[in-house]
Amino acid sequence: MVDMIRAPSGGITLQTCMKTVKIPEGMAIVPFLISANFVENVLPLHSTEFLKHLQQKWVISVDKQPLDEIRDYFGTEIAMYFSWLGHMTTALWFPALLGLS
């Protein structure tokens, strides 16, 4: 996913005290920085396997949201946000149906 982020129009210039790198417009940023020895290593911030599991359980399913798993992975604030969205969606069904009739 991070490999798909590309430089905007006009490109990007990155500078340290020892080195300057110009990334051309449209070039994938992370692979370019690795090949230019500007970045040594990239640490993924997410677990791909768990996100696939969460996608199967959450996005594709029509069951309740897996709020405990969301909390364990993303944190309490994000879980509370999705809990609130679920509550609001449920609470607005009746007014929405009245508005359609």
From TrEMBL:
Protein's cellular compartments: Membrane
Coiled-coil ranges from the UniProt annotation: none
Family under the similarity heading: Belongs to the anoctamin family.
Signal sequence coordinates: none
Species, as recorded: Strongylus vulgaris
Gene Ontology cellular-component terms listed: plasma membrane
One Gene Ontology molecular-function label: chloride channel activity
Protein name as it appears in the record: Anoctamin
InterPro entries: Anoctamin, Anoctamin_TM
UniProt entry tagged with the keyword Membrane: yes
The keyword Transmembrane appears for this protein: yes
Protein's membrane topology: Multi-pass membrane protein
Domain Anoctamin transmembrane: 70-100
Keywords, comma-separated and alphabetical: Membrane, Transmembrane, Transmembrane helix
Main localisation: membrane
